[in-house]
Amino acid sequence: MDRREIFKHSLLAFGAGLSGFTPAMALAQEKKTYAGQLDMLKGQEGVGNSREAHAYAMGMQAFEYGFPLIYFANIMYKWAKDPNSVMRPLNSWISPKDFVATSNYRDGGSFNTDTVYAGAFVDLRKGPMVLSTRDPEGHYFSVQLSDFYTNNFAYISKRSGGPIFGNFLLVPPGWKGQIPKGKFDRVLQCEQKWIFALIRLRVDQDDPSEVAWAKNKFNQAKLTPLDDHLAGREFTPNDFNVFDVSQFNGNPLRPFAILNHMLAESPPPASDEILLQGFKTVNIGPGMDLSKNDPDTQRGLARAARDALPALRSHVERPWARSVNGWFYFPSHIGQAKTTDYVMRSAWQSLWGIVAHPPYECTYLWASVDQNGDRLSSNGVYELYMRKDQFPKVEAFWSFTMYQDFNLVVNDANRWAIRENMKGLKFDADGGLRIYIQAQRPSEDKVSNWLPSPKTGNFNITMRNYMPSPEIIEQRYDPPVLKRIG
Length: 486
Hints:
Elements: H1 3-18, H2 23-28, H3 50-81, E1 115-123, E2 129-133, E3 141-147, E4 152-157, E5 166-171, E6 186-189, E7 194-202, H4 208-220, E8 222-225, H5 226-231, H6 254-265, H7 273-280, H8 295-317, E9 323-324, E10 327-329, H9 342-352, E11 362-367, E12 382-386, E13 394-404, E14 407-408, E15 417-419, E16 433-438, E17 450-452, E18 460-468, H10 470-473, E19 482-484
Parallel strand pairs: 5-6, 16-17
Antiparallel strand pairs: 1-7, 2-5, 2-8, 3-4, 3-7, 9-10, 10-11, 11-18, 12-16, 12-19, 13-14, 13-15, 13-18
């Protein structure tokens, strides 16, 4: 028997093994066919339209892969062009209209009320930019630097090491210029020419003096082209030329049209090429033209565009890591650069939070069910009791924040979280903390510890632990039980 025959019979034996046959039985049946073989394939002849089915599968995968790019394109357009939003140019710091996070902000991202934010879309296509920040004077402070895939390629924070304020040079890929020595506190090499920078600064948002102090700090934060910085010239950002996503309104393939543009602006890494080859079969890829698809393919992509976001949303509801007392930890690999877990990247880093910290900077826990496994709902009355010895061990702070659809919940009290620095919280004689979670205002003796839930629909609560201890990072900490009492 020659090598080709050996190879043929080896494959036959291997396939037979999968279906429960021994190699000897397989060889004996080599020239026979019978109805019982490979039942899983029964009834598949002539089912559906192959082009449409393939396009649907590729579209669902492409959406799960590329959602961060799609989301960033929409946010960038809204924050620059929408009269109902902040209307800020590229290379400028952007804060919510209310400065502090409130339920007036409805663009998603699960904003917290522990810190104030300033974000910026940094365009490095013309060359390096200098990011300048000032001394946070002991307050928690971080600058998260991410590409549009939500890869955190650099951090400016205490936990990350190095200086936490000063002048930081952002260098685009392929730039060949000279970097002056001794002029910058850090030089950060960027792998993409578009990046998202996000400042978080800890304040008590109920203290007007602290809020005013934070505004002053943010006013001192700058983004300046390298030449202007070295020359001491003032730079006034005025570039509103962002990609116009509104041109695709009403287009059933809208997310994929946006994705094709964004993939050209932020080229995917070579390691993702095997995925991109599949997407290209339906004209999804950098700069590709969806109009070249046949009608069957377009129908499949349109179905995927309709179904993909709810499917992605469902991933946020399922446990990804340790589950305890009705809470589950966020994925242990969240916020890590260059992850190949594209579903996690899109569902948690992008859809849940626009971008997300790695666990060493902030460890998140999420609650969407009570002690009986029932969905948290506006119809329920809940209590969360945290013993003194259950208070999370953190270097910075912890909080519990109420969300619905990734936004802070509208309520008459304008309270969206219970934070460890909140004034007026009542602790019991043993130092424990009881939090009352319900839509209706409780009795006056409980109002100080009330976390209002929405008046209709389901909700979620996120526990944040900033600069956590090893037991929290390693998911060994047991949070308090969230109990339904009425």
